[in-house]
Amino acid sequence: LGGHQHLACTYTQYPFKTTKLILLDSLLQETRTMDRLCGLFPNPVKALAQEPAGDAGYRKLSAAATEEYSCEFGSTKYFALCAFGGVLSCGITHTAVTPLDLVKCRLQVNKEKYKSLGNGFKVTVADAGVRGLFLGWAPTAIGYSAQGLCKFGFYEVFKNLYGNMMGEENAFLWRTSLYLAASASAEFFADIALSPMECCKVRMQTSLPGTFPTTLRAAAPKIYAEEGLNGFYKSLVPLWGRQIPYTMMKFACFEKTVEFLYANVVPKPRAECTKGEQLVVTFAAGYIAGVFCAVVSHPADTIVSYMNKAPGATLASSAKDLGFAGLWAGLGPRIIMIGTLTALQWFIYDGVKVQLRLPRPPPPEMPESLKIKLGLTQQ
């Protein structure tokens, strides 16, 4: 106040200089006021820089979209783009291995004619030419694209949902159970989307020549005319029996293998790896997971093929007709197919995430709060 009185008194003596002093004093007062206001809102860049390293991985999951990422983790856009990645991941890979899938299905249902993988290819080419190896490609592309949309999209949704319900500490401690629950939930819906096209595909691939249409536009109406809507879903239960254990193994084994590789094999932390190096780890973990997937789900896969070929067959009658040895027919080619498929699917899915600049959380680390509780760090 004294400063303002002094300025007022000298104004009559030095009007121009005093006016400048008054303006300068007002500017300084405004600056002080702005400094007080800024103190209420911490600098976000400084806050991130001061964040503890142990919390960084988890904090990033809820971070808003930045220049590095195209969307926020857990947002509707994030889940939609993950589902799109699943469409490409499953649709492309399953369509590409249609010849191997065709021979595998025929080995399962007609062991007398198709005696081995090599013989199956030879007999198929002799009967229908090279073109015959791609029989059923259309329902494969449509069905597995729909399945991939639900499989990967819903997996991300359920993993996020269940993880939030469990809390950060429990989500870490029970992360394998979290992966299993999220993947099983996602595959339940994915198989409902897949079943109609899977039914058409298997009937087209395993029916005797001349007894069933060889195009999707003719096969689907024929199944509907003969068996109604139930014809597309009669093998849904064994499909669940095949795909749910397969998907649970696929996601849980992949997640744990990635965690193991970065902790014990890769010579540097994931954050220091290039995106190309990270995709190599993804491919390796995907192939390892695929081998286990094939073994776990193979008996149910054989029953699905048999039931779609034999009208009126039930789950129990199919298992009885096939016998224990028959349930494992075609396991060799399926290991090759599923191992390659799973590796490529994870590679494509992770590659889509990279190209679309989606958040890709690092392998889970123990939360600081849990470290404190367990006495692993100083509070």
According to DSSP, the number of beta strands is 0
> Which geometry do the CA atoms define?
elongated
Number of helices: 17
Mean pLDDT: 82
> How would you sum up the major sheet?
none
In whole angstroms, how far apart are the ends? Answer: 49 Å
**Radius of gyration over all CA atoms, rounded:** 30 Å
- Low-confidence stretches at least 5 residues in length (pLDDT < 50)? 1-5, 7-12, 36-65
Relative helix content: over 70%
Structural class: mainly alpha
β-strand amount: under 5%
Provide tags for this entry.
75% helix, mainly alpha, 379 residues
Could you explain how this protein is built, in words?
- The protein is an all-alpha fold and 379 residues long.
- It is built from 17 helices and no strands.
- The protein has helices spanning 2-10, 15-39, 44-49, 53-61, 76-96, 98-109, 117-128, 137-166, 168-173, 175-206, 216-227, 230-233, 236-264, 275-309, 315-327, 331-355, 368-373.
- α5 (76-96) runs antiparallel to α16.
- The radius of gyration is 30 Å and the shape is elongated.
- The two termini are 49 Å apart.
- The relative contact order is 0.11.
Helix-strand blueprint:
Elements: H1 2-10, H2 15-39, H3 44-49, H4 53-61, H5 76-96, H6 98-109, H7 117-128, H8 137-166, H9 168-173, H10 175-206, H11 216-227, H12 230-233, H13 236-264, H14 275-309, H15 315-327, H16 331-355, H17 368-373
Helix pairs in contact: 1-2, 5-8, 5-16, 6-7, 8-10, 10-11, 10-13, 13-14, 14-15, 14-16
